Amino acid sequence: MKKEAIITTLSITRAYEIKHFQVRIPGDASSICGVAVTVSSKGKTVLTIPDLPKGEVSKAAYNPSRYNRNLLFGDVLLFSCEEGNCFYTGELHEEDNNVMMGDFTGSTEDMFGQWSHGQRHEADEVIVDGDTTVVMGIYRDKVGKAVSKTDGYNVRVIIWIKTKN
Amino acid sequence: MTIDLALEYIPRRMEELGFGNRYTLRFRHLVLQATEELILDAQNQFFILVDQPSGITVDSSSGVFDLSSSSVNEMQYEHQGLINIKNMTEKITHIRFIQVIIKHKKTK
User: Does the reported pTM lie above 0.80?
Assistant: First the structure.
């Protein structure tokens, strides 16, 4: 049994865009075992904390006594054609801005954060029958008008499957 | 979606979802006053839109039906969960659904 990832990229360019999409599941899939959703903003900062200039978000994130909003890009729902129906719903954040909150060790960057602070991207575990041939999804943009100031951003929906062979 | 298509579609869809014929149907013809907003609680139910009304937004977790929207790439006729229906016009508007109510599984 092998694990494979199916990556679907959605390009979001309009404010409050709602995008329906379908992901084809190969015939040898025995189950869908994980879902991860990531965002890449084409090298630009799409969102900023209001009182900080662009590009200062990451610096603010390492101030241990300050609470920062986690900025929301949108939400994703995935539906299988079979009994699973709606099997995944999740909100999409670029990063956790409070990951170093309360950490007074003085480090501005934590190179081990992916192990000690849960910064490493992990797929959310789901258990869905692989008999479904298509997964239907819907993405709703929550960034709004800030999208039009940039060239938009890309959302990657990564579906992990287990194959029979 | 026409009513004929919906009646053809519903049994197949319920079979796919594993409900078999454990469901009942109701025809719902909703009348919305000017700018009225209505929230239907359709958890474990399906509302199949059998109209193409303009000036009405139907928004649920499955998607959106709004003929005037430019931000949606597909219209959704099958809705479930919390369904938000809004009349965007200044006049009374009608909208018709077929409601699919899933029956509880009998336990012995």
Answer: no
Q: Minimal Cα–Cα distance from A48 to chain B, Å?
A: 23
DSSP secondary structure of A109-158: S-TTHHHHSS-S--PEEEEEETT-SEEEEEEEE-STTHHHHTT-EEEEEE
In this predicted structure, the answer to whether residue A139 has a pLDDT above a threshold of 90 is yes
Tell me: domain A2-44+68-96+120-163, CATH 2.60.120.790, correct? Answer: yes
**Average pLDDT, integer, range B68-72:** 90
CB contact under 8 A, A83 and B72: no
- The predicted-structure confidence for A28-85, as pLDDT tens digits, reads as follows 889 999 999 988 776 555 554 444 444 444 554 456 777 777 778 899 999 988 888 8
Residue among B12, B16, B60 with most chain A CBs within 10 A, to mutate = B16
- Which positions in chain B touch A77 (Cβ < 8 Å)? 61-62
* pLDDT tens, residue by residue, A119-135: 667 788 999 888 888 89
Q: So where are chain B's domains?
A: 3-102
- Does the structure's ipTM exceed the value 0.90? no
* Residue extents of the structural domains in chain A: 2-44+68-96+120-163
Angstrom CA distances, A76 to A18, A91, A93, A133, stand at 10, 6, 11, 19
- Whether the CB of A18 is below 8 Å from some CB of chain B: the reply is yes
Q: Considering only CB atoms, which chain B residues are within 8 Å of A15?
A: 71
Rounded to whole angstroms, the Cα distance separating B101 from B99 reads 6
The arrangement of secondary structure in B3-102, i.e. its CATH architecture, is Sandwich (2.60)
Looking at beta carbons, which residues of chain B come within 8 Å of A81?
16
